[in-house]
Amino acid sequence: MEKQHAIDALAALAHETRLDIFRLLVRAGCDGMPAGAIAEALGVPAATLSFHLKELKIARVIACRREGRSLIYAPSFDAMQELVGFLSANCCQGVRAAETGRTRKRARG
After folding, report:
1. Is the model's pLDDT at 54 over the cut of 60?
2. Contact predicate 51/43, CB 8 Å
3. What backbone phi and psi angles, to 5 degrees, belong to 11?
4. Per the count of CB atoms within 10 A, which of 11, 42, 47, 62 is most buried?
5. What is the CATH T-level fold of the domain 3-108, as seen in this structure?
6. What is the SS3 string spanning 11-60?
7. Cα–Cα separations (whole angstroms), residue 78 to 15, 32, 52, 82
8. Cα distance between residue 92 and residue 99, in whole Å
9. List of residues 6+ apart from 5 with CB closer than 8 A
10. pLDDT, tens digit, 9 for 90 and up, residues 13-45
């Protein structure tokens, strides 16, 4: 993942409503949800929801598909795995996170 893509994804998710939308879609899974159901579940007006969905799509953390007359939104699990991988790359200088905690405790003790 390129740094700019990571920045875009993090910026999109750094808004309360967009984070709520993303978390709701994660719970819905790969099947996703229609925009109307998202609006109803979160109590967000349609125009506001449309703006936030657009921002999440631009950042590529959600995807949209058409089913009949409905637009179905779903999380992009691949993009989120890439983001987590990007954030944790070179973490702990090659030391497993569990070992890092133990090392710190020993150093203090």
Report:
1. yes
2. no
3. -65, -40
4. 62
5. Arc Repressor Mutant, subunit A (1.10.10)
6. HHHCCHHHHHHHHHHHHHHHHCEEHHHHHHHHCCCHHHHHHHHHHHHHCC
7. 21, 15, 20, 6
8. 9
9. 60, 82
10. 999 999 999 999 999 999 999 999 999 999 999
Q: What whole-number distance in Å separates Cα of residue 27 and Cα of residue 6? A: 22
pLDDT of residue 90: 73
Which residue type sits at 64? C
Burial of 73-107, coded b for 16+ CB within 10 Å and e otherwise, reads bbbbeebbebbeeeeeeeeeeeeeeeeeeeeeeee
* Contact criterion met (CB below 8 Å) for 12 and 60: no
Token pair in block for residue 49: 């929801």
Helix (H, G, I), strand (E, B) or coil at 75: strand
